[in-house]
Amino acid sequence: MKTFVVIGLGRFGTAVAEELCELGHEVLAVDAFEEPVQEIADKVTHAAICDARSASALSSLGVRNYDCAIVSVGNDLGTSTLITLNLKEMGVPQVICKAQSHIHRRLLEKIGADQVVFPEHEMGLKLAHNLVGTNVINYLELSKDYGLVEIPAPQSWWGRHLSDLNVRAQYGVNIMAVRHQGEEDLTVAPGAAFEIKTGDHLVVVGRLDAIRHIRSL
After folding, report:
1. How far does the chain reach from its first CA to its final CA, in angstroms?
2. Cα pseudo-dihedral 155, 158, 160, 164, rounded to 10
3. Which whole-number Å values give the CA distances from 214 to 22, 53, 62, 211, in the listed order?
4. Strand, coil or helix: what is 138?
5. pLDDT tens digit string along 193-207?
């Protein structure tokens, strides 16, 4: 079991806190306002009203003893930056922050955030890809140029081995896993002798323009 503190109980923070607790972990949920703290109190291990901009207030909650802190106060750059700085100076091992822009992300990373996420941005990208290309099953932006995507294998690849396709050299992407049609389990890190079958889905990582090219085959 790991220990988490979630700071900021908007929709994102509340969902993260409740799910972590549901998965069996210890969760301290924190917000500056009473109402969201009361609403989540019965769904997490601990809940507290606290102005996380104050290092002394955070310290009084024992935040330094938690394995990971999630800062979900993403709408206020100044507040999330100050909270993140407090957590890093306290020595919290892992600090994950919600950001609203790339500038916000760069600032958080510069002061030591271990990971920065864009929940709305990432969901918007996934929705856009699903709307314009129904053959995209899952999409994760790794950077503005690279992504991890699950797509159907091109029909011209059916019945061929990975060694014949030489995907990395020919297309500039790596096949991380394959899912056979109608199956839930993935074949992870398939070898050169692996044969692509009819209806397979490929989990590929690489440049987004290269992935778009494969989708057009």
Report:
1. 46
2. 20
3. 39, 47, 50, 5
4. strand
5. 999 999 999 999 988
